[in-house]
Amino acid sequence: MEIFSIRLEDGPEDRQFVESLDARLVDVIDLHARTREEIAAFQASFTSTAWSEENASGATFLAENEAGHRVGYVHVREGVDDILEEPCGYIALLAVSKNCEGKGVAQALVRRAEEWTAEAGFSRLTLDVFSSNTRALSFYDRQGFRAETVRLVKTLREAR
């Protein structure tokens, strides 16, 4: 097993790495009511929220291998539990480099997000995942996450 460490994001090079993994996230999203261009634009916009003023209390953690190469990241921030309407931790983004899939990187990043959530005083950690991302759904299930809602979409007419 490869050895890696987790650290806080630290500037423009780390942000470039995070943004470079957008294509991996886009590749696992297959939505019948959305074009690839719409999905890519959404992902780029959503990733940029990691550094917005409103998410200043969140944190982006990077995983690095022994050689110091970035291999994955998680961005966690305050969210709202939709049922209890109280603050909770929220994994907004998580991605791992393709060559590091299945090596425990994502699991370590989720554990760090859980630690951040507990340190912030929240009792729950939530996330959203696209239904087409079956690998992520299986992974999160193994980490103890369970679905509470499912959003369904029906296209009624073409967008103007």
From TrEMBL:
Keywords: Acyltransferase, Transferase
Gene3D superfamilies: 3.40.630.30
Every N-acetyltransferase domain range: 21-160
Pfam families, alphabetized: Acetyltransf_1 (PF00583)
Domain of life: Bacteria
Name recorded for this polypeptide: GNAT family N-acetyltransferase
Origin organism lineage: Bacteria, Pseudomonadati, Pseudomonadota, Alphaproteobacteria, Sphingomonadales
